[in-house]
Amino acid sequence: MGKYFEEFKVGETFQHQPGRTVTEADNLLITTLTMNVQPLHLDAEFGKKAEFGQRLVNSIFTLGLAVGLSVGDLTLGTTVGNLGFEKVEFPKPVFIGDTLYAESEVLETRPSKSHPTWGIVILEHRARNQRGETVMRCKRAAMMLRKPAK
């Protein structure tokens, strides 16, 4: 079970486990499912001639994986929904075979003005690869359930 609104404390950081190794199938599926025909993700020969000498993992997968890794610790069964993402950044590339680890920091909490049984939690999600390099960070506004009255 995830956390209720009242259980989030500003400044708290959560290290999410386990990590996840990115496979070729992951990259192929997200890229084709989203109709992204960028050869940098799909074409190994094109990737060899590109900036990093190999294919890059689709950044939408990286974002989704980092947020997904946080669900068990933070929002499983307690989220109403996402309000939005802002300042999504990918400072380093992700390659097939990289293992990603995620952490989340609570930046802000506030009760919902329109729904007394909900609260808003602002999180910063960060993903790092096996070398400890930050490969993704973003701010996310999540609408969370408040603890039920007893």
Entry summary:
The chain is of the alpha+beta class. The protein has 4 helices and 5 strands, in the order βααααββββ.
CATH fold node name: Thiol Ester Dehydrase, Chain A
Largest sheet: 5 strands, antiparallel
Structural class: alpha+beta
**Termini separation (Å)?**
18 Å
CATH superfamily: Hotdog Thioesterase
Q: What is the tally of helical segments?
A: 4
Which labels suit this protein?
alpha+beta; Thiol Ester Dehydrase, Chain A; five-stranded antiparallel beta sheet; 5 strands; 37% strand
Task: Give an overview of the whole structure.
- The relative contact order is 0.25.
- With 150 residues, the protein is an alpha+beta fold.
- It has helices spanning 24-33, 39-42, 44-49, 59-74; strands spanning 13-21, 79-89, 99-111, 118-128, 134-145.
- The chain contains 4 helices and 5 strands, in the order E-H-H-H-H-E-E-E-E.
- Helix content is 24%, strand content 37%.
- A hairpin with a 5-residue loop joins strand 4 and strand 5.
- The mean pLDDT is 96.
